[in-house]
Fold these 4 entries.
Entry 1:
Amino acid sequence: MAFYRKNIGSRQQMMRLALGVAVAIAAFVYLSGFAAWLVAASGLGFALTGLVGYCPMCAVAGIDTGDAR
């Protein structure tokens, strides 16, 4: 049993995953120190929402762009 309901669609999941990983990689290429770690963690958090298909902020705002059920 899942503790969450997917609230983002498959295209948005792919985009979040790709952009999140790209931001994390770019953080270490273009930044250094604590700023790089902070931006990379944010990018990986964004990628994680794409991986699982659930965005807590979208849930709070009542946004559901999930695929048709």
Entry 2:
Amino acid sequence: MSISTERTVRAWHAWRYFALVVNAHRSPHISDEPLVSVIIATYNWSSVLHFAIASVLAQDYANIEVLVIGDGCTDDSQSVVEQFDDPRIRWHNLPVNSGSQSMPNNTGIALASGQYIAYLGHDDLWRPNHLRQLVRAIQLAQADIASSTCLAIGPPGSNLVRLTGGLPGGRSGTWCPPSSVLHRSDAVTVTGPWQDFREIEDPPDVSFVRQFEHHGLRHVRVRNCSVVKFNAAWRPNSYRLRASAEQQHFAGLMRHQRLFVERQLIALARMRLVRAPETYVQARKPVAGADTRGWLVSEWRRIRGLHDIAQPPTDGEVIPDR
């Protein structure tokens, strides 16, 4: 790459970062605020669920309903939901654990009343202008699906940080985690529902978003870093430990720290400059010729400390994948 080309690339990257900074402090006016149904799939991790719901209720977009769908929960998750005492929140618990987010998300879609549907992982957080930015963008573009930039953070000491959505500073390409996505509720009549992970090769979230493009539906990407994701598959035994300190810490930062996004981008840039080594457990490669349907999700379950979905759990073992 020539010096002039490299400078052009750097300038373009700097401009895209600038867009993230500017949009972090914007909350656009929307004359028509249609109902947004927020779906939170969860299983037996009530300590993080509290922070996820709180970040939804802190949105500056008020016309929402929150559908918390338990994947066969047996802990106090229902009590956590009820403690918010907010009529916009509804709790529904599936009778049997399904092993992934697909069934809870499909149940939420069936129960949703909103014109738009958004998803939030039970261990992820939204910044306050997340929904307003997405609704505004999907309306302006007359699109079917919108997604925002997500800051995916690894466990402390891992040096693992990703900016998803094809933005510089990350290596996740155009991957859109569910917590970044909002779509028209009627779009699923075209794309179809979330698929069972055991029947497809791609993870269900990748497959679901890809169906929008496959069917020619319009996808608009919003340069607003409005999601903080704590990928459970980057945290060995996360479903056994059920820690919530990271969510509590970042929820506090987003509430009280000025220039939160700027500080996170600076920290990310510093790590990239020094090329800090990343440490995390990676999924194993499948055996040559093996059936790879559901492979990645099964591997992520193993890393999270969960049993093979085809095998019964041992006493006291948690069983979902979220």
Entry 3:
Amino acid sequence: MILLDTHTWVWFVSNPELLSAKAKQKIDDAVREKAILISSISVWEVALLVARKRLSLTIELDDWIARSEGLPFISFIPIDNQIALKSVQLPPPLHNDPADRIIIASAIKTGATLITKDEKIQRYQGVNTLW
């Protein structure tokens, strides 16, 4: 089971050439196993990036999200009380980006490997990452 960080999800869907070879292989394996998770906070992050014109999609945002939701190998994880609480209780050192903290807490709760290029997250000892 893997969980895609927000940028990994965007790249997987729109620019797979930006993925590392190891990340691409792990994602390809997870596609076959129907074992890809994405935190709902990533939907919020993508919507915010589009609204701020820091991310441009080739189709409307709602359609882009709906297409991802329709993929049979992706499951979205809602932010439940356990994830919300865990995101605040993560031990230091970790930067304070709330979305990253929720993604990390989601990976910990599910036992998933977090696929991320974010070096701060990769250095964090509390979560299994791959890039």
Entry 4:
Amino acid sequence: MYYAARKPLFIDSDLYLKQTQGRALTLIDGGARGELFDPFSAVACPLEVVAFDPDVDAPKGTQKERVRRHFINKALWKETGTVKVHIAHQPATSSVYPPDLELLRTFPDHVGAPQRTTEKVVEIESISIDEAVDQGLCPSPDFIKLDIHSAEFEALQGAENSLRTSFGVLVESWHSPIHRGQHLTGELEWFLNQRGFFLFHIMHNSPWPHVVDGKNLELDRPRMVGTESLFLRDDLHPSNSNQVAGLHALAIADLFRYNRFAVLLSRKLLEQKVLDTDLQWEVEKKLNWIAEERLRSTRAIRFFKRRFRNLVRRMLS
């Protein structure tokens, strides 16, 4: 729930729904297990979600009427064909690239070598995001999320055209070569920078302590092995500069709580004639109202929390 949305949301507003004329925001969910990921799980308006996971038995999560979610049981890669996947002892940690067991043995067993040791290698069908779009399997995406265990770079290589229609990318990546031959975080950031995406937020989701003789030191700092990064555009791609794409971009920025950035972006879209003067004014007015409502709600919650803590203290004393 790290990216849990704060309501009200621009994407659920009457203004957004009217001006986008019913065109649902489209998400690519690479590595789709379980429920729809945050913060999109909080959205009330219709969403088009195309979920990729080669495991036909992967948990699909709860189907909701507002979400048109369909699954493609192929591995995301840079091209259509087949790829060899190293199936690990813990299947959820399986990867196209083989595990680096020497490095993994320097970490605790529950995240290291025992869980990630390859038990078999299987060949599975692969597809690129661009080819899925070209084949009519999914619409051009507005947002791409990738959590596919070391194959994220190749999936982005296979999304060259789709990145032009996308405003954001949420991607898990590795800072250390947990899998031999994999691309690391710096390479992914460089790749996305070259295509107009820049880092807005990074979440440290894999801090692993080193172990010596099977034990780690309680006061030792963990090594930052993996992170999840949010990349957004500062502007629309020139080939995708239209009103609906602009409103989708504003909705994504606000959904991830970059409300002030959304206001600035709306002004830039006005300068570029993507939004007209009246619509930009309505959008900015709505975004300002949303910011005020969130602040009012947050202050109220903080007030009641303080009251509750003070009440508990008085009762205990």
